[in-house]
Amino acid sequence: SIVVYAIFHINFASANDYSICTTYTDLDAAAPCGENGYALNFGYPICRAFIDNEWKFTTDGQAFLNCVRSCLTDFIRTDIITKNVTDCTAINNDAFSSHLPCYTRCNFCDVVLRNILPFALTYQISNFLSVNAIEQVAAVAIQCLSNLSNCLLG
């Protein structure tokens, strides 16, 4: 059964469509911030990792992933690339600023608990080492706790 799983997983993984992730390589081409910039250091690898692991998520979790990928990449295209933002610090700040609205719009708080293991297996500790990343995690956590308290208190 392990062999069947391995073959299925290899075949499934090789069929993944990473085309939406090219938004991040397009961003780096338009504003070359390199390996330490948001696009190549955070956006592109995370985009690919979530596509690779999407099969581990519930149906609602997969819907969240599709929604948030579109939301984040639309923001990159319309608010950074189209507006010709080229300062690497501004790109990093602007891109991270889109996370909370996108996560909220795509109902992250409704799916996180049922998908905690796939999220934990997809993210790397290194994804959370920047101030912007820590601030966004805190903001999302506060939003989810606020939603929970509103639900409990009615």
From TrEMBL:
Signal peptide: none annotated. One of its GO terms (molecular function) is hormone activity. InterPro entries: Stanniocalcin. Pfam families: Stanniocalcin. Keywords: Disulfide bond, Hormone. The keyword Calcium does not apply. It comes from the Eukaryota. GO terms for biological process: intracellular calcium ion homeostasis. GO terms for cellular component: extracellular space. Belongs to the stanniocalcin family. PANTHER family: DUF19 DOMAIN-CONTAINING PROTEIN, STANNIOCALCIN. Homodimer; disulfide-linked. This is Ion channel.
